[in-house]
Amino acid sequence: MASVQWLENKFEKHRNLDNASHMAKYMRNQFDFYGIKTPER
User: Fold this and answer.
1) pTM more than 0.85
2) Is the CB of residue 19 less than 8 Å from the CB of residue 37?
3) CA dist., res. 31 & res. 16, Å (int)
4) Cα separation of 1 and 36, whole Å?
5) Is 5 left (phi over 0), alpha (psi -120 to 50) or beta?
């Protein structure tokens, strides 16, 4: 359980509210997002 908390803390630290709002809108506000994008490929 500690590893899950550690991961959530890392996500919170890197949260981008602007991206999160766009991501949630794209998914019709069904889910919460941290707004962290994947690296470009």
Assistant:
1) no
2) yes
3) 15
4) 22
5) alpha
